[in-house]
Fold Ferredoxin.
Amino acid sequence: MNISIDGDRCIGSGQCALTAPGVFTQDDDGFSELLPGRADGGGDPMVREAARACPVQAISVED
Ligand code: SF4
């Protein structure tokens, strides 16, 4: 799995960090970023749910 976040789309709603807090966090400005070493999702089953929860489809998940 490879996760990417489109920083141009992200509006900082925080849904990803709420849904999968083991993978996503928010930077000082509130925008989404991946926790260190978690670009592969770390096997977290909530990653896809977090991508679906994003209101602006800023999160891409590839197998
Ligand atoms: S859910 Fe989407 S818009 Fe909200 S912080 Fe995460 S990536 Fe950004």
